[in-house]
Request: fold
Amino acid sequence: MHPAKSVIFFTTASGAGYGLLALLIAGNIFGLIPAQFWLAFIGYAVSYVLITGGLLSSTFHLGHPERAWRALTQWRSSWLSREGVMAILTFIPTGLYALHQLFFPEMMQGIMGLLGVVGVICAIVTVYCTAMIYASLKPIHAWSNNYVPAGYLLLALMSGLLLLNSLLALWGFATASLQLVTLLVLGVALGWKITYWRFLDSSKSISTPESATGLGEFGAVKLFEAPHTEANYLMKEMGFKIARKHSAKLRLITLLAGFIAPILLIILGLFLGTVGSGVLMMLAVISAAIGLVTERWLFFAEARHTVGLYYGAPHA
Amino acid sequence: MTSLPTTPSKKKLGLVIDLDICVGCHACAVNCKEWNTGGHSAPLTDTDPYGADPTGVWFNRIHSFEVENEDTGGRTVHFPKSCLHCDDAPCVTVCPTGASYKREEDGIVLVNADHCIGCKLCSWACPYGAREYDEDAGVMKKCTLCVDKIYNPNLPEESRVPACVSTCPVGARSFGDLGDPDSDVSKLVAKRSGYDLMPEQECKPTNKYLPPRPKKLGNDAPPPELAPVADSSAGVIARWVDKFLSA
Reply:
């Protein structure tokens, strides 16, 4: 599948934004994050910039961005529509909670706590909907499985935790316990990514050139002549190919920058203490950002669509 | 509304494509382009048509496959493919705007170009590659089953079939109601064991394909010896010519 920059930025940025937003609210509800105005203010600002920036960027690849509002109408059947509806709905409880926490922390605490819980659930559901846009596409073997929603949720949590840790470290509130939790999530996410790639390398679509043409009973089917001499929309959009050697290198970059480097930086930070760890946590965030963008690029580039079977792909 | 019709129509208009007959001449694709570039989804934009990298919107394409078999030898099969107007069309249910829809009255799958946002998700959801993106118009386009031709009262009755069907010089394409078991197309499908493409994708396509007929094998004997054409009962000249030629 063609890796569109706008969609890669959208899914990684909004994932991190929703992760941080959910953690900020949950941390505040349970009193795990020190009640410091600027910490909370910057935290919420970063999440909303990431979320809104991601959502806006996702409209850039549309043929008619001015009609984007129509995408909110078909939530009964379409995961893309559900994602849009949830993204907007999430602004309400989380926005109210953030305003309450920042400016009126004394008022209506019970109701606001409830609203916070709703907001956290909305953020999780939104990320889940984003993942389901891909996981619901049966023709794409690499996406149509449970690894995909698990991964989107895990990586949103992971990037949210990394952002939260660096904010806390900058304000001098870093705690070893939260960093240990982050290490745990990084480890689980790393394991998930390796498992996903193993699944990808060891399995293929149930559809074959034989089932695509129905000519299997006569023998092995291969393309003799394509419909055109030049590439068409389908081949450019769905037939994106990536060389195996590049894919191996990019996987290595994903593993090193996305998971291993942040793990090592956090461990180093734990030994160095708070001042060092602020810088280290920022480095961990930058490294993870590079790793996760690479991861998302590969998520598209490595995914094969069944339409390729009509254009000479031996499997999908 | 991009939910599929709650009461699916009994009428299921579609195509039956005979892979035994198709000669791969691409006339159906050309006439499809010709009709549709002035029809319901007009224009079928071409980009750089006379340049080095031409590309454009086509609703129908002809692939040619080689089927290899050590026992029966290889064979070439020409394979036209357009939208299959599926019963469970995933391109319809993924559409976030309601632009993509399946008609209740005859099962034709269409795009409302005024509502389409051009997100391309329907092209990802279709396992067959039946969806096209028009770069110029910024919307998705697809085979309309010539909805503007098959119901057109201005055309003579016999012309009210999709452009690909009316142009096929060898009669490899048939059009009709596949929801009616007594229709000509349904009978043809039953008689020739017509099948679905990629049934495992569970889209329940309406269009059916008829398999190539088995090759005639076992005719390996050498041709019979040439024998003199004229026997003693033939005339003088015939015998003389025969003698001359046999020498």
